[in-house]
Each structure stands twice: as C-alpha cells, then as structure tokens.
Amino acid sequence: MQVKKRAVLGQISDMDLRLLRVFRSVVECGGMAAAELELNIATSTISRHIKDLETRLGLTLCRRGRSGFALTPEGERIHAETLRLLAATDGFRASVDDIHQRMGGELHLAVFDKTASNPEARIAQAVALFRAQAPEVALNLHVGSLNLIERGVMDGQFQLGIIPEHRRSDSLAYDELFGETMLLYCGAAHPLFEAGATDLTWERLRSHDFAGLGYHSPNMEIAHRERLRRDATGFDQESVATLILSGRFLGFLPDHYAEAFVRAGQMRAVQPELFRYACRFSGITRRSPAPSRVTQLLRDCLVLAHINHPAPEPCPIQV
To answer: Which of 7, 139, 144, 147 is the most exposed place for a label (fewest CB within 10 A)?
Structure first.
C-alpha cells in the first residue's frame, strides 16, 4: 500500500502570508539589503523571514552572497505563485470592502512607459479625480511592458492597465482613452541626420539597420508589415531611444518623448510625413470577476478625464 506524502505547507496562515509579502518585496527590490527601506525592517530580520519561509516550504528560494541575489528555479515558481496568491487575497479584501460599501484597500494601476509626456494622456487628471472621491485607497502605480500589463491584469496582479492597443482579448474589457503619434528617428551620428532624407520609400528604408520592440505591439506590427529587418531589439521606449542615439539604427519613438532629444540636436525625425503611424491607448480591466467599486471608480475617472480630449484618428500610412 502506497502512503500518501503529507503536504509540506499544510494550511496557509496569516504568518505565511506575511512571509510571502516579505519575499515579494525582496524580489521586487532585487535583494534583502535593498528591501530594508521598503519593508522598514532590518536586513537581518528580512533574512530570517526568508529562511523561515524556505523552511516552511521545504525549498531553497534564493541564493545570496558576493555574486549578489538570485532566485533559484524553485524560487522563480514560488514568486509567480506568490503574486497570484497575494493578488487573490487583495481581491478578496476589496470585495469585502465592496460589500460594506467602503472605498478602501489598495489598487494597482499599470501604465505603459513614457505616457506622462504625452499631451493627449490625462492620466494624472484622472488620478486627481479618483483621489478626491476615494482618499482612503492606497494607489500603486506601476510602469511595464505591454505584455506584462496584459498578463498582470488577467492574473489579478493589477486591477487596471493602460496600454497601446494591438490585439484585443475576450477576457478583457477596453475603454479607449487617448492617442499617440509615432515617428521614425535617426541619431546625430547617423548618415541620414546631416544628409536629410527626401526620397526614401519603405522599400529603401529596408537597407538601413532598424531597432524595434521585441514583443507583439504596434511597433512590431508595422515592422512586419513593411518588412523592416530588426537588427537591434529594445524592450521599452528608452532602450529604443538609446539604440537610435548610438547613430547606428533607425527606430520609431513617440513624438512627445523624442522632442527633448530633437531640441538638443541629438536626433531628428526622418520624413515624418511618410514614416509615421498612430497608436490608440485603452484602459483594460478583467471582464470576470466584475471590477470592484474602487476599480470601477478609477475606470470611470479615466474615461471622464479623456472624454473631452479624444484620441486622434489614426494617421494613414503611405506606401
């Protein structure tokens, strides 16, 4: 007769949740010493908490030493499960507040990078509206890649996200908010900077080295559609800007973000009347379960803040 193995963890207690929250902070901060300020406890205490969690789970979660802090493969899996579990407990707490008609707890909003300088974006105004109506809610603002935000909203890690639209998911609800114009740029050391470009076509553009985003996005879609060869890959707008500034690559950037580089003479737009495309940004929430009152309030504030500032119509891309 085979004897069933007893689960190492057993029931999850309040102490387990506390240890998991410490573990999450350590991973997010990149180490125990770095998490000291975030958690407001000594590094020695943090180390003891992590050791207690490892003992409780029967696993080694991380390695720490002169080479720095790093998660083990088991630690990577536990971190992913920790995010899901803590998101679920936060969601439960929000639901209880909802039942009691309270506007409290925490709310996590994730935004695609480099939106603050976009004159079409009125996220700050939406936050002000929300704060005036829900002053007791602790608002957490995250910045991430498109895929990270989508996955985080689906998993419940973020209650609401703001992303450039690329392909819609049936599991998410979308609210169109604002627009953004993307132009093609070259750095000051690029041959096209001094020579200018008045006779380039999409076909001729393919002979130049191109830097693009390395995940599914409007940036990747236009690169595929126009058959641009991606010679360097960035994973956010700043990395693409850095590649452009090297003078070795062309790349698309939001015009509002690139403006400071243009004014400084560090880059210029290449035939902006031709090499351009438009993005639309939308707020996303999970369809199921239905958003809490707090999440719905922020969703309403975002729509209200942008209702008199609609996103522009997409610019036609000439071929």
So the answer is: 7
Task: Say which range, 83-92, 164-173, 214-223, has the weakest mean pLDDT.
Answer: 83-92
Q: Cβ(236)–Cβ(145) under 8 Å?
A: yes
What CA–CA distance (Å, rounded) separates 22 from 272?
A: 49
- Strand-pairing partners, residue 279, are 180
**Segment (H or E) for 231:** strand 230-234
Torsion from C-alpha of 90, 95, 97, 102, nearest 10 degrees: 120
- Whether residue 298 contacts residue 162, with contact meaning beta carbons closer than 8 Å, is answered with no
SS3 176: strand
Report in angstroms the alpha-carbon separations of 181 from 81, 105, 184.
Answer: 38, 36, 10
Q: Please give the pLDDT value at position 126.
A: 96
Residue with tokens 């080479």: 67
CA–CA gap between residue 200 and residue 248 (Å, rounded): 17
Angle in degrees, CA 94, 100, 105, rounded to 5: 30
Q: Of 305, 290, 317, which is closest to residue 120 (Cα–Cα)?
A: 305
**CA distances to 1, 66, 112, 177, 284 from 120, in Å:** 68, 47, 14, 9, 18
Strands 106-112 and 172-187, bridge-based pairing: unpaired
What are 106-149's pLDDT values in tens digits? 899 999 999 999 999 999 999 999 999 999 899 999 998 888 99
Q: How confident is the model over 213-240, as a mean pLDDT?
A: 91
CA 12/CA 203 separation, integer angstroms: 60
| DSSP notation for 83-96 | HHHHHHHHHHHHHH
What are the structure tokens assigned to 149, written together?
A: 């935000």
- CB-facing half-sphere around the CA of 205: CA atoms within 13 A: 28
Q: What's the pTM value of the predicted model, to 2 decimals?
A: 0.70
Confidence band for 83, pLDDT divided at 50, 70 and 90? confident
